[in-house]
Write a structure and sequence with these properties.
Layout (H helix, E strand, L loop, with lengths): L2 E7 L3 H16 L6 E8 L3 H11 L3 E3 L2 H6 L5 E4 L6 H10 L3 E4 L7 H14 L3 E3 L7 H11 L6 E9 L16 H4 L3 H16 L3 E9 L4 E3 L19 E3 L5 E8 L4 E7 L8 E8 L2 E6 L5 E6 L10 E4 L20 H18 L7 H20 L3 E2 L2
Parallel strand pairs: 1-2, 1-4, 2-3, 4-5, 5-6, 7-12
Antiparallel strand pairs: 7-13, 8-11, 8-17, 9-10, 11-12, 13-14, 14-15, 15-16
This protein binds alpha-L-sorbopyranose.
Length: 387
Amino acid sequence: MKKFNIAMIGAGFMGKAHSLSYAGMPMFFWPAPGIPHRKTVVDVTDELAKEAAQRFGFESYSSNWREVIEDPDIDIVDIVTPNDTHAEIAIAAAKAGKHIISEKPLARNAEEAKRMLDAVREAGVKHMVAFNYRRTPAVALARKYIEEGKIGKILNFRGTYLQDWSADPQSPLSWRFQKKVAGSGALGDIGTHVIDFARYLVGEITDVMAVTKTWVPERPIQTSGVDKLGTVKGEAEAPKGQVDVDDEFTTLVKFENGAIGSIEATRNAWGRNNFLTFEIHGEKGSLYFNYERRDELQVCFADDPSDSKGFRTIYTGPEHPYGQGLWPIPALGIGYGETKIIETYDFIKSIVEDTEVSPNFYDGYQIAVICDAILESAEKGIWVNLK
Ligand code: SOE
């Protein structure tokens, strides 16, 4: 069984999730397609990198990512840094011949994402973007039902991603509120997960008509420390800085196959935590998913007996996508960790079997094109066609 040496660039919240997936993948999916080995972790200082190596189980550490990606022992570069660094690291890693997995969104805009796509294609390396939610078994099951024709031709997709961690105006001005670092706000950070669902389940988006809002135009400047997603309050007297990204967006969408729908995301919806949902209506039935109840897929089929028609719940388990590797009975509990473990499984498998994995940098680029179009549509107040 081949061992794959991982260099993980970054060591925050996503570093934790990815490290867990490297350790856990062979425990779940056995025989594993390959063994991910936590070789080197990179953080901004040696001290932080050393601590990350201890915490996340890496063999070595560094504060120099350029040196690390040139290391001939490294097979895979894993990018878990803020958005403004993805392109530089990925392009250098591709040139060094490394396979790459990058956190989402792939880049700050389509131009940057295109350069990354060109680099991996030219280098002939494997590439993946970490839109992990589509690897929730219930979401993969929805796709299976759609492919099997269980709900017929799709008419409508409604997707939401609602959180509340930035609803408090004292939630500090982290990099996620700065266009030069993040590219966009709720759109790139969480809206892209819904766009990924829409493309995965329905197909390519052709037109968008959007509105965006920035509800909290200034926030207390965060002087140090990692982004704690609203759990740290800025000091009342701290100087404030400008938020130059969207807090919320809503867009109407048209799909290539004729379906229509809507996508919305906000981080200012009190009471909503990880309210990532879709409802899909087809000619022969409907599907509903909410990540806050991620073991469940709600289904309603038009040919259900008329006296018992209505949504019912399927609890995912061994019979469902990825079920053989997960837990032995349904509803034991799928979590964020499992979605990341499955992601690692599919990525390593694609390297070993020399196949294309999705979502990859092409998908990341297409999603960036859609995001740019949403921002353009909101700014000009017009429908934007993507072709
Ligand atoms: C913050 O909104 C965040 O951490 C996103 O960046 C992630 O993609 C999402 O999975 C959880 O929330």
